[in-house]
């Protein structure tokens, strides 16, 4: 999170008094890290829907009490890609659960509820428009499936346990591709539904680390992986610069 | 996690070469922290089932390759209590989902699967037996409900959004109490099911920070909260000492 904050500080020309540095507002003792960089809050959310949902509840309350207006929230992160070269950036056009439905399911007071996981189409397209032909990677619109684990729900065979075959896995991944899914991660459906519910524009912008149709092992070096992870930050950095009239 | 590791080092008389200290095997760059203290691994698991499930898959693989035998895994943590004084330690006798069923539900290759969330009864009773009449707190057996968020699924009214009334919340919490639920946390059902599936004995030992039947705000001071959080560690530390023949 500090890397993103430092990057945005440079990109947005945010000045910090001499001798001072960006500080983690969670003070390293909280479960999330948070940096304020001019008009941008950079916040970590942990892995998976439950961790993200706690963060969003608390962030929404913070933004309300701080009287923030016209807020936009963008999740940047990593994902497994489907049918895309590793290093491709996917801007989510629709967040789907593991039944490929656009809903975030919760059990409230013992009863199942489904909240529509709607993302702002205009925001997604505006972010997509911040890619450049000069980029050394592609940025695409695609559907994103949100899973509740990394191994079985994402059809990986290399967890501690597994109940399906390589063929069943590949058939499933091809079904996802045919349904328009271009990447899988672990937060999008709750992110979309929670932002939609409080009427805050939200977007999900994730780089793909692997093409699941060709294999599950990440073969890139650490250096290449770090460069991949900076790609969504570069695209989103440009979008924020544009919004702030810095270009 | 470092605090637990240091505590167990002292309790288990684990010697460390002069001038050295316990080190985080995740090196601070990984998403989890891990310390090895003699025969005990202390590992953090993040918040919620998805984060825990990644950790357990990877831990099970590690234990397999390290040829570990007769492993026991104990989750220690915090929870919201139901009908118990804050600071009470609950040893989980049964882990339930938010429908109050003893199952961990996953969607694998698009199909719903339910895995029994069975904990080892003998282990729970042995840990319960490590409480002492001299303790300044009670340790009890009880059912634990595992929720996928902190606010709405746990019937809290103080999230960013809420769709039920104080009365509906209290009726629900009383229903949980009547069903034998004594605390709510966010990992137990997957923890139990995953340990059961690979035939590793598992236990969940959590302190309650609040009595939800009397209110949701934690009113204890930071110092008291820290002492509460050490209580499950004390009980589990005694159990490990006993198993190692140190008592």
From TrEMBL, chains A, B:
Domain Nucleoside phosphorylase residues, every copy? 15-241
What are the UniProt keywords, alphabetically?
A: Glycosyltransferase, Transferase
Q: Which residues bind phosphate?
A: 31, 75-78
Q: Which reaction does it catalyse?
A: uridine + phosphate = alpha-D-ribose 1-phosphate + uracil
Q: Pathway listed for it? A: Pyrimidine metabolism; UMP biosynthesis via salvage pathway; uracil from uridine (phosphorylase route): step 1/1
State its Enzyme Commission number(s). 2.4.2.3
Q: Which InterPro entries match?
A: Nucleoside_phosphorylase_CS, Nucleoside_phosphorylase_d, Nucleoside_phosphorylase_sf, Uridine_phosphorylase_euk
Biological process, per Gene Ontology: nucleotide catabolic process; UMP salvage; uridine catabolic process
The answer to keyword Zinc applying to this record is no
Q: Which residues bind substrate?
A: 154, 156
Q: Which GO terms describe its cellular component?
A: cytosol
Q: One GO molecular function term? A: uridine phosphorylase activity
Q: Which family does it belong to?
A: Belongs to the PNP/UDP phosphorylase family.
Q: What role does this protein play? A: Catalyzes the reversible phosphorylytic cleavage of uridine to uracil and ribose-1-phosphate which can then be utilized as carbon and energy sources or in the rescue of pyrimidine bases for nucleotide synthesis. Shows broad substrate specificity and can also accept deoxyuridine and other analogous compounds.
Protein name (record): Uridine phosphorylase
